[in-house]
User: Which sequence fits this backbone?
């Protein structure tokens, strides 16, 4: 189990680094948007490439940081039933959800998007908009993002199993116990 936990720490470190790094792309998208809007209003100048760059940057931030979001348990959950269950049952729900929902969804999405990326790369396809950007880089973000999400799912699975086995302390259970003391 210690080897798997080491792998989990490596995956967590990679996704933390990538997530923090691509979060800056949102600032770049906002700045590009502001500059593009300003030049359009003041000088009647605009560029489709700048407009497309905004959604390229947002797509990169969203897709690449999805794994970081999973790592921080910041994704949307419906806790109506889950929150009322004992911690051990919650861990089993997370394990089964990862195996039967997250992994198949990520793997199918990666499998289906990869041929599109290859096709767009080989053809050198460019956006239909005048002055638009190449399409393959933004399409490549889909399998990259879902690949990272799959790896983070593996890391989370390893950690949940380690918690159940008693090889890793459960930070959530410890925080809940501490909150009850206060």
Assistant:
């Amino acid at each position: 189990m210690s080897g798997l936990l080491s792998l989990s720490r490596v995956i967590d470190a990679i996704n933390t680094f990538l997530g923090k790094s691509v979060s800056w792309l949102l600032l770049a998208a906002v700045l590009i948007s502001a500059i593009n809007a300003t030049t359009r209003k003041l000088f009647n100048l605009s560029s489709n490439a700048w407009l497309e760059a905004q959604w390229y940057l947002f797509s990169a931030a969203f897709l690449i940081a999805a794994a970081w979001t999973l790592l921080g348990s910041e994704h949307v959950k419906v806790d109506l039933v889950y929150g009322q269950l004992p911690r051990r049952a919650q861990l089993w729900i997370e394990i089964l959800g990862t195996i039967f929902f997250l992994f198949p969804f990520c793997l199918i999405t990666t499998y289906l998007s990869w041929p599109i990326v290859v096709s767009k790369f080989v053809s050198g396809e460019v956006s239909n908009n005048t002055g638009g950007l190449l399409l393959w880089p933004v399409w490549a973000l889909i399998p990259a993002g879902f690949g990272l999400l799959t790896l983070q799912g593996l890391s989370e699975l390893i950690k949940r199993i380690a918690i159940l086995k008693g090889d890793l302390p459960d930070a959530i259970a410890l925080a809940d116990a501490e909150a009850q003391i206060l």
Notes: The chain has six helices and no strands.
